[in-house]
Design a protein that fits this description.
The structure holds 2 protein chains of 2 kinds. Chain A is an all-alpha fold. Chain A has a single domain, classed as MetI-like fold. Chain A is built from 13 helices and no strands. In chain A, α7 (146-157) packs across α8 and α8 (161-172) crosses α11 (203-239). Chain A is flat, with a radius of gyration of 23 Å. Chain B is mainly alpha-helical. Chain B contains 13 helices and no strands. In chain B, α9 crosses α11 (254-291). The longest helix of chain B has 38 residues, at 202-239. Classes of the chains: A mainly alpha, B mainly alpha. At the A-B interface, α6, α7, α11, α12 and α13 of A face α1, α6, α7, α11 and α12 of B.
Chain lengths: 299, 343
């Protein structure tokens, strides 16, 4: 077992594949570290993950149980962000909402990225009628503004968090397919793919082990930037009452409640909006930073 | 010779685009049809209520063609859409198309003003950021833009109402016009400011214009974020070109180099960006209209949605999809016709 040291990672002549791969990753990290925007984004996302993981410990009050004696209290020493119309502590509800946001983001990414990648790589690799049919379907889904298609889908499926996630995923894959197809088209022509074919590798093997890995870095950037949009769409659905249902402390739904008290109890709707803003900004900053590191064209 | 190349350059791709537009629209109808069919609510029961006698329900199903095989239902559906028949809205009991024609100008008004504002501010910001690339104006503009990508539009609308309406009282509250003037203005074009001016109701026109300020500024912020970002990256690319150096060597002032030479060359891709941002505002308008009680297409769709008025929802979705596809087509055609390099 080689000791992982800086010198080992930065060796000019790596002795193993693992050393080469880790060395590349380390170089990427060094480049990323110098990017203040990307680091700020990373800090926000890490904070979201930590808060989500520790949310039961961090919450000062019960986020669900009503306490009508303390309804609509302004921000104070005990209730930093005030209380809502049922006397629930808003800070606690925001903390309880963090895992919900994280879950939405992760589930959408897990559902959308592989599907888009598969469709795009297959369309780009085979070309011909397969490409035309798959891209036609992609165009149809791109033809709807995302939120509106998601609205119609949720309305049919019945409002709720699971269906909102599903609707966002159904509307979310086309850009990934387009991107993966464009990458595949350029990769398909390369000599190493031709060499693999000469060696008798199956199409499935070539796509899975030699095309898909080449698309991954653009995919990661795309997913990260896209998550900001996913958070906003989910919050929009929650705001319209089509996403997470009460008493779940989803941030968009909390703004919807706060709307009724907007003019006199501003804190009810303002803080959840800030939370959405910060997290979504975090993904945008991280994606921007990653793009500069991972995409040589942007340098 | 010149006309032949124009034919090859513009006409052929446009024909291909129109064919692809038609196919996409067909797919759009298929998707809305499937959404309408997956619906767990039985359309017959929704229209008649669940206490209707069985024979009445059967007759209704027969009349509506609900007993036909699905593919025949789809053909009927497509035929009806092409005749402009989206069915009747359960909520307003008027034909859906009539409803949409009534509310659409309000959305158009909002999106147009927002796009104009977005261009007026976004382009200079993008140019400024590109000229000062890597220095503080660039960073400030980048953060302003990234914030625009990150903030929920409905929340920004609410905060805007809280600050500029409730606290500062600079702008009027939600709605399109002061209630006092509501009945003064007959719809002619559907755009309230213009209608009021046409009828010589200047005070009403002023009220309508003031109601436009806040919602259109909120929407404009989103198009500004997009336009300034794209302008910046186009300009950075241009400013690296050799003709820029040539212009500087020839003694052209820096302002002339930037605003005439460089910006002149990004005008074409920018037209595309502006068209696309106009299309994206359709989406933003759904939530903005809800917050500002703005009687446009977005609010029509969400209102219908909350009342399970599926004909109206699907009709609205089709219209939005159609406008969206057409604007994308327009962006493409503009690019091809305006830019001699796009061959």
């Amino acid at each position: 077992m080689t000791l992982i040291s800086r010198a080992w990672l930065l060796a000019e002549t790596p002795q193993s594949r693992r050393q080469a791969a880790l060395g590349q990753a380390y170089l990427g990290w060094l480049a990323f570290q110098r990017n203040p925007i990307g680091m700020a984004g990373l800090a926000i996302i890490l904070a979201l993950i930590v808060v989500s993981a520790l949310s039961p410990i961090l919450m000062p009050f019960d986020p669900i149980a009503a306490d009508t004696a303390n309804r609509l209290r302004p921000p104070s020493g005990t209730h930093w962000f005030g209380t809502d119309e049922l006397g629930r502590d808003i800070l606690s509800r925001l903390i309880a909402g963090a895992p919900i946001t994280l879950m939405i983001v992760v589930l959408v990414a897990v559902l959308v990225a592989p599907v888009g990648l598969a469709i795009g790589c297959i369309a780009g690799y085979y070309g011909g009628w397969i490409d035309r049919v798959l891209m036609r379907i992609t165009d149809v889904f791109m033809a709807f503004p995302r939120l509106i298609l998601a609205l119609a889908l949720v309305a049919v499926l019945k409002p709720g968090l699971e269906n909102a996630i599903l609707a966002i995923a159904v509307t979310g894959w086309p850009p990934y397919a387009r991107m993966a197809r464009a990458e595949t088209l350029t990769i398909r022509q390369s000599d190493y793919i031709a060499a693999m074919r000469q060696l008798g590798a199956s199409d499935a093997r070539i796509i899975l082990f030699h095309v898909v890995p080449m698309c991954l870095s653009s995919l990661i950037v795309r997913v990260t930037l896209d998550m900001a949009g996913v958070i906003l769409t989910a919050a929009g659905l929650g705001f319209l009452g089509l996403g997470a249902q009460p008493p779940l402390p989803e941030w968009g739904a909390m703004i919807s409640t706060g709307r009724r008290f907007l003019l006199d109890q501003w804190w009810v709707g303002t803080f959840p909006g800030l939370a959405i803003c910060i997290v979504s900004l975090g993904f945008n900053l991280l994606g921007d930073g990653l793009r500069e590191v991972l995409d040589p064209k942007q340098r | 010779m010149a006309s032949a190349s124009l034919g090859q350059r513009v006409v052929q791709p446009v024909v291909r685009l129109i064919v692809s537009l038609a196919l996409t629209f067909f797919g759009l109808l298929l998707v809305t049809f499937i959404i309408g069919r997956v619906m767990p609510i039985d359309p017959a029961l929704a229209a008649l209520g669940d206490r209707a006698p069985a024979d009445v329900v059967d007759r209704f199903r027969e009349e509506m063609g609900l007993n036909l095989p699905l593919w025949q239902q789809f053909i009927v559906y497509v035929t009806k859409v092409f005749e402009g028949d989206f069915g009747r809205s359960v909520l307003s009991s008027r034909p859906v198309l009539e409803d949409i024609a009534r509310v659409f100008p309000a959305t158009l008004e909002l999106a147009t003003v927002a796009t104009l504002l977005g261009v007026a501010l976004g382009v200079p910001m993008g140019v400024l950021a590109a000229v000062h690339q890597g220095r503080w104006p660039d960073h400030v503009i980048r953060v302003v833009g990234l914030f625009g990508y990150s903030v929920p539009v409905f929340w920004l609308g609410l905060v805007g109402l809280l600050v500029f309406y409730a606290k500062l009282d600079w702008v009027p509250g939600p709605g399109r016009i002061n209630i006092a003037y509501q009945d003064f203005v007959d719809p002619i074009t559907g755009v309230m400011v213009i209608d009021a001016m046409l009828q010589g109701e200047w005070e009403a026109a002023g009220s309508a214009a003031r109601h436009l300020i806040l919602p259109s500024s909120i929407l404009a912020y989103f198009s500004l974020a997009y336009i300034s970002r794209m302008t910046r990256s186009f300009m950075i690319e241009q400013l690296k070109q050799e003709y820029i150096t040539t212009a500087r060597v020839k003694g052209a002032s820096e302002a002339r180099v930037v605003w005439r030479h460089a910006l002149g060359n990004v005008a074409v891709p920018l037209t595309t960006v502006v068209t696309l941002s106009y299309a994206n505002l359709l989406e933003g308008s759904v939530l903005t209209e809800t917050v500002f009680a703005w009687p446009g297409l977005g609010r029509y769709i969400t209102d219908s949605l909350l009342n399970a008025d599926m004909n109206a929802v699907l009709g609205g979705t089709i219209v939005v999809g159609l406008v969206f596809v057409s604007l994308n087509l327009l962006a493409d055609v503009l690019y091809r016709t305006l830019d001699p390099r796009a061959r």
